[in-house]
Amino acid sequence: MNKAPEFGTYPEAQNKPVYSRWWISGVVLLGAGKLAWDYGTSGDPSAGYMLIPAVVAVSLLWLLIFLLRMFFYHLSVHNKRTFDERVGEIKHAWWNTHRQTVALRDAVLLGPSCSTPEQRQQLLNPGHPPPAPTATPEGPAIRLLQVFGDDVTARERGLATLLALQWDQQRTPGPVLQPLCCYWQGSLPAWQAFVEQMAACCPELQLPDTPESWQGLGSLEAIIDRLQGAPSNIRILCAGCHSSPVRPATHLPPGEAAVLWWIAPQEGVRLSRGEWFAARHEKLPEVAERALQQGEQTAATSVCVSFSQAEMPDLSGIGWNTQQHRQDAHFGALADLEAMVALTLAAWYAEQQGEPCAWLASDPHYTLALGVVQPNVSVY
Question: pTM for the whole thing?
Fold first, then answer.
């Protein structure tokens, strides 16, 4: 669970001393001492002097008890105030870290319904018709028409090549910053095809032979940690491609897509750490509320880019509309690439509309992943 730290309640401070009672008891004690003195000296004056040590001892005992009562009361008040302040500091620090973001400077998305930046604008239009499934020997599948063949490995290599070509076509002319590191979601042969095409398109760009494996929200969190306080010219490359094999009895037809991100510390729509949902440990509405807290939202966003999930609880009761902008029909089943696709579409919506956009998809290590993408407020 990715919850804020929780602490037990510190015991309440002791009851405040009732000073009026203490002053009355002190006056009564002094009065009793005076009466004892008068009575003792009425017959034999020397007997009164024998009472002085007793009166002084009783008075000092009263004073000691009073001071101890005052001390322990103020000590309990101080301890509770210190505990509450420290708890507040820890929770504040946790939320500050949990709300850290990075900037998505550039993104490319290829899918059966989306091959160019112009086409991607239509994906969040509920009336936009999805692509017709392609017939294959094993059954229908949602495929890119620009990639040929039925072998999944060959199709992923073709997707990786197309991804590099599309990035080169839509990137801003000028020098390219070398990435600090590279993350890849997909097979190593597909990465090799991607590297080869990127070298052909941009010879000055040096990519590693073996990238870091994309691990969903775990990788995104590591990137955010790594870029906090980093210079503005630092870049991290995240990319991936996936072509699902045709299998019988699946709730979605197999699909395919390719994604590329250039992530920087600043100047772009803001990607947060997101929240993960583990079905055995939490309730999804609680996780969704925490995702809104992470994005500092007081209510659910008007748009949520999502993929359908088996046995997913309904979130309409807390304002999350996961039905209207569901992308199943446009992309099909994408396995571990779902979240990158959903995040990319949410980022484009936030960039174009200038308002936050939620996303919900599967994750390699958890039941679900979800979050809120924030627009780049510096341009509004």
Answer: 0.83
**CA–CA separation, 9 and 370 (whole Å):** 31
Answer whether 198's CB lies under 8 Å from 160's CB.
no
Local structure of residue 137 (DSSP, 8 states)? T
Q: In sequence order, what DSSP letters do the residues of 292-311 get, joined into one string?
A: HHHTT-SS--S-EEE---TT
Q: Which are the contacts of 49, defined by CB distance < 8 A and separation ≥ 6?
A: none
Q: Could you tell me which residues are beta bridge partners of residue 241? A: 258
Integer CA distances (angstroms), 272 to 32, 223, 276, 373, in order: 73, 10, 12, 7
Read off the amino acid at residue 265. Answer: P
Instruction: Answer whether CATH 3.10.20.30 is correct for domain 99-379.
Output: no
| Residue that has been written with the tokens 């302040």 in this structure | 85
Q: How far apart are CA 32 and CA 369, in angstroms?
A: 76
First to last CA, the chain: 35
Q: In the sheet where 236-243 sits, what is the strand order?
A: 212-213, 182-185, 236-243, 256-264, 101-110, 269-272
Q: Over the stretch 211-222, which tens digit does the pLDDT of each residue have?
A: 999 999 999 999
H or E element that contains 51? helix 45-98
CA gap 319, 324 in Å, rounded:
12
- 8 Å CB contact between 108 and 162: no
Per-residue pLDDT of 92-146, as tens digits, reads 888 889 999 999 999 999 999 887 777 777 787 777 788 888 887 778 888 888 8
User: Would you list the domain boundaries of the chain?
Assistant: 19-97, 99-379
Give the 3-state secondary structure of residue 290. helix
Exposed, middle or buried, 21 (CB in 10 Å: 0-12/13-18/19+)? exposed
